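User: Let's play a game. I give you a shape written as tokens, and you guess the letters that built it. Ready? Here's round one.
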């Protein structure tokens, strides 16, 4: 289930992409069965039930965020435990970050289930909580709510993200055939929040899907 945000002036897929590849690319294969997620499921519980790696499962299903799966979602199951001890598909919740802005944008993030300001700032964008809460002209929802860092926010509402002055990125499109959004954020040297913002509502897909991404972010005169 996904909804793609229309992106202006995208160049052709695979144009001027950075070198490198997603970790363990194409090494995890699917068995001829799927699993339907229930209300109390988590990715680690499902992975343990089938004796496979968490990131094997996340990458095979092209999850936006391995920490978020929803009831009724159908997941492909890996044939075996290929990389059971690999957790690099998850985003790092960097509570020690000192960054106060992101390069170029996008400047609006749409809240996912379970999101807090702390998670959005530290994990999605690798910036400080204070930089988001003190953002000038914050969205009406956040301004009226005045949430604490760990208050769970309403799904579908928006948060403004501070952008560093005089910065720019190149925009392109890639095909997500395998991996999580964090894998591609690492590959393109951007934050996972930037990819999420460009691809509004994307959660997972059982097949390859085109997504927008920024890269070559830098300061400009």
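Assistant: Ready! My guess for every position:
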């Amino acid at each position: 289930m996904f909804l793609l945000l229309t992106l202006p002036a995208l160049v052709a897929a695979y144009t001027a992409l950075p070198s490198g590849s997603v970790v363990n690319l194409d090494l995890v294969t699917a068995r001829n069965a799927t699993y339907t997620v229930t209300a109390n499921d988590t990715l680690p519980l499902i992975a343990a039930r089938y004796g496979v790696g968490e990131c094997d499962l996340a990458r095979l299903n092209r999850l936006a965020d391995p920490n978020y799966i929803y009831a009724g979602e159908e997941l492909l199951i890996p044939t075996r435990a290929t990389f059971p001890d690999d957790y690099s598909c998850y985003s790092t919740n960097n509570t020690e970050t000192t960054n106060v802005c992101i390069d170029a944008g996008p400047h609006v993030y749409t809240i996912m289930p379970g999101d807090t300001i702390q998670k959005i700032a530290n994990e999605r964008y690798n910036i400080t909580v204070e930089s988001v809460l003190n953002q000038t002209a914050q969205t009406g929802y956040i301004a009226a709510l005045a949430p604490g860092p760990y208050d769970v926010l309403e799904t579908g509402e928006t948060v403004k993200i501070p952008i560093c002055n005089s910065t720019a990125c190149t925009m392109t499109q890639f095909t997500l055939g395998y991996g999580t959004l964090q894998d591609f954020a690492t590959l393109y040297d951007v934050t996972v929040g930037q990819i999420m913002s460009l691809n509004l509502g994307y959660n997972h897909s059982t097949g390859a899907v085109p997504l927008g991404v920024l890269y070559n972010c830098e300061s400009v005169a």
